[in-house]
Design a protein that fits this description.
Shape: globular
Structural class: alpha/beta
Largest sheet: 5 strands, parallel
Strand order of the largest sheet: 7-6-5-8-9
Number of helices: 10
Number of strands: 9
Order of helices and strands: HEHEHEHEHEHEHEHEHEH
Helix content: 25-40%
C-alpha cells in the first residue's frame, strides 16, 4: 500500500507514468469510466477548499466510484475531540482511499501511519500540497510539451507559498531547468530551499525584485499573491504590491508561447483582462487537476484499466 504525503514520495518514473495516464484519460475518457466501480473515496477536509475537494470528488465519480466525507472540521467528530489517528482508523472501515486536508502540518502523515487504506495529502498547513504540484507538472507538460529545458519564473510570495516550494523540488529533478525567483526582499525564497534543493542539485537560479526585467526570458510564469499580512511595514506593501500585479502591458515583452500558471484562488495579482490571452493557463490548470487526480486515485488503488 502506498500513500502520497509529499511529492518526494513519488519517483520521476512514477510522476511521468501519472502524467501519461492523465493524458490518456483526456484522450480516452470512456476507457476509464468504470475502473473504480464499487470503490469509495473519503474526503476529509478540515479547512475550506473549492478546487481541491471538488476536483477529487469529480475525479472519483468520473472513474465510476463513490464519494463520502466532510467539508469542514465542525461537521466531523473532530469537533468532539477525536484525534486524527482515530479518525483514520474509523475511515479505513468505510472507504477504500482517503484524501485529507488539514490545518496542522503533519496531520496527513499521522493519518497514513494509522490507516489501512491509501492516504493522499490534499494540503497540510504551509507544508505540502503534492497533488497541486502534480497538477502544475501536467499543465506544464501539456502547454510546453516537456518538463526539461525550461526557464521558470516564480513570482510573488515565495517565502510562505507551499505550492512554490513543492514545484521547485519537483522540477529540480529535470534537466536544464533555470528558476527566476521574483519577489520583494520580505518574501524571498527560504534559504533551506536554496541550499537543500537548488544549490545541492546544481540548479541555476537568480533572484530579482523586477517582474518586468525577468519577463523576456521566461517560458513559464507561476504567479502567487503578495499578501498584505506578510509585511511588517504598510508603506513597504503599498510600494511593492503593484509591481506584482500581472497586466496586459507587462506581457508586452513576454514570449509568444509563455505559459502563465497560478494555483488559485487569485485576488488581484492577475488582471482579468489577461484571462482571454491564450498564454493564460490557470483555468486549464484547474481542469488538469481533475485528470491528474483521476490518474493518482487509479494508481494508488491499483485498479486495472
Amino acid at each position: 500500500m502506498k500513500h502520497l504525503i509529499g511529492i518526494e514520495d513519488l519517483t520521476n518514473e512514477e510522476i511521468d507514468a501519472l502524467i501519461a495516464t492523465a493524458e490518456d484519460i483526456i484522450a480516452n475518457p470512456a476507457k476509464y469510466a468504470e475502473v473504480c466501480h464499487g470503490k469509495k473515496l473519503a474526503t476529509l477536509f478540515y479547512e475550506p477548499s473549492t478546487r481541491t475537494r471538488l476536483s477529487f470528488e469529480s475525479a472519483m465519480m468520473e472513474l465510476g466510484g463513490n464519494v463520502i466525507g466532510f467539508s469542514e472540521a465542525q461537521s466531523s467528530s473532530a469537533a468532539k475531540g477525536e484525534s486524527v489517528a482515530d479518525t483514520a482508523k474509523v475511515i479505513s472501515c468505510f472507504a477504500d482511499i482517503m484524501v485529507m486536508r488539514h490545518f496542522k502540518e503533519g496531520a496527513p502523515m499521522v493519518a497514513s501511519l494509522n490507516s489501512t487504506i491509501p492516504v493522499i495529502n490534499a494540503g497540510d498547513g504551509g507544508h505540502n500540497h503534492p497533488t497541486q504540484t502534480l497538477t502544475d507538472l501536467l499543465t506544464i507538460k501539456r502547454e510546453k510539451g516537456r518538463l526539461d529545458n525550461l526557464t521558470v519564473g516564480l513570482c510573488g510570495d515565495l517565502k510562505f507559498g507551499r505550492t512554490v516550494h513543492s514545484l521547485i523540488s519537483a522540477m529540480a529533478r529535470y534537466k536544464n531547468i533555470k528558476f527566476v525567483l521574483i519577489s520583494p526582499d520580505e518574501l524571498k525564497i527560504p534559504d533551506y530551499i536554496k541550499q537543500d534543493v537548488l544549490e545541492k542539485n546544481g540548479i541555476e537560479y537568480v533572484e530579482t525584485a523586477s517582474l518586468d526585467g525577468a519577463m523576456p526570458e521566461l517560458d513559464i510564469l507561476y504567479m502567487t499573491r503578495v499578501q498584505r499580512e506578510r509585511f511588517f511595514n504598510e508603506q513597504d506593501y503599498i510600494r511593492l504590491k503593484d509591481s506584482y500585479i500581472l497586466t496586459p502591458e507587462k506581457l508586452d515583452s513576454a514570449k509568444s508561447d509563455l505559459a502563465i500558471l497560478h494555483p488559485l484562488p487569485r485576488v488581484n495579482e492577475i488582471s482579468v483582462a489577461i484571462d482571454k490571452d491564450p498564454r493564460a493557463c490557470y483555468f486549464r490548470q484547474v481542469l488538469n487537476g481533475k485528470y491528474i487526480r483521476m490518474a493518482l486515485i487509479k494508481y494508488l488503488l491499483e485498479v486495472a484499466r
